[in-house]
Amino acid sequence: MNLTGLIRRAAGLAFFIVAVQASGQSAKAERFTFCGYNLKNWLKMDRFEDGRTIPAVTKPEDEKNRVIAILEAIHPDVLGVCEVGSDEDVADLQSRLKSAGIDLPHVERAHGGDPTRSLALLSRFPIIARNSQTKLSYQIGAKTLPFQRGILDATVEFHPQLKVNFLGVHLKSMREVPEADEALMRRNEAHLLRAHIDNAILRNTQARILCYGDFNEHRNEPAISEIIGSRASDGFMTDLTLRDKNGQVWTHFWDAADSYSRLDYAFCSRGLRPYIDLRQCRIHHERDFEKASDHRPIVITIKDRL
Asked: Which one-letter DSSP state was computed for residue 158?
């Protein structure tokens, strides 16, 4: 082989090595795990035990241990929870997770008009912006009512090129209350959430938003449709329809009625959708999930690059 041929062969080999290295780097692209979970009253409240009411006691120890075991199996990088109580309760959760090998040092807690139940986001990565809404309200007739749990708004920086805006909510429960119709209350809260999303998109049409939580609403109801928005708009939010290993979509079990429902959702903005690895997203199921909570956790996998 002459000198020219050798040079060409060497150049081709160098190109092949670079291509293989690039391919290897692409194959090793990192995934981040987000988990959304209603913890079922990880807080102090009156509880009924052994035929009597015990005031101001925390979630039973065996239930807490089962929550931690389930989260240990998921091992989230970012965890968004509903039905947690005070800063002390969040610190308790954080400490137990750390003991299980899940260190989530960065925290945002938010609340609304409900003084008992809060929202919290715990993250392995820094929270670089906070815009939680704790004092939102709306009108039903002559009544002014608070957004009961508010909107948790925290932006997490996974790396300088990937920042995700997490919006956590827990809409009004389906339990009847004397103040107003509970479905109408949820509709108003959904309207306030939609306005919050629109404001974020108005500031940046490519905003990477993940909206998650316990929406206490079925998929075909107006509240969910309003949160999703119009497909023709920049603010359209994709419903990440998740399934468990059996292909089922329910996230909540109400034992008194033998009722299985999808009440927990995750919606993502157009800017975030390409980063979602749907093949790795799921509803996490374990046979004894109800020993931890009446909800099953949702798991979203986020790619670190396109």
From this structure: E
Residues linked to residue 38 through DSSP beta bridges, in sequence order? 82
User: What is the residue type of 291?
Assistant: K
**Residue 217 and residue 269 in contact, taking contact as beta carbons nearer than 8 Å:** no
* Cα 57 from Cα 43, distance rounded (Å): 8
166 contacts: CB under 8 Å, gap ≥ 6: 34, 78, 80, 121, 152, 153, 154, 155, 156, 210, 212
Q: Are residues 223 and 178 in contact, defined by beta-carbon separation less than 8 angstroms?
A: no
What is the pTM assigned to this prediction? 0.90
pLDDT of residue 13: 45
Task: Please name the residues in contact with 73: beta carbons below 8 A apart, sequence gap of 6 or more.
Answer: 284, 286
223: which 2 tokens?
A: 């509240």
Return the number of other C-beta atoms located less than 10 Å from residue 129's C-beta.
12
- DSSP letter at 198 equals H
Low-confidence ranges of the chain (pLDDT < 70): 1-28
Q: Residue 303 in contact with residue 272, Cβ under 8 Å?
A: no
**Cβ atoms within 10 Å of 114's Cβ, excluding its own:** 16
Pairing outcome for strands 31-42 and 78-84 = parallel
pLDDT of the residue at 15: 42
Q: Is 41 left (phi over 0), alpha (psi -120 to 50) or beta?
A: left
Quickly list DSSP for 18-56.
Answer: HHHHHHHHHHT--EEEEEEEEEEEES-EEEEETTEEEEE
Residues 193 and 116: their CA atoms lie apart, in Å, by: 21
Pairing relationship of beta strands 162-170 and 209-214 according to DSSP bridges:
parallel
- Other C-beta atoms within 10 Å of 283: how many? 21
Contacts of 111 (CB under 8 A, 6+ apart): 117, 118, 119, 134, 149, 150
Q: Tell me, what amino acid is at 133?
A: Q
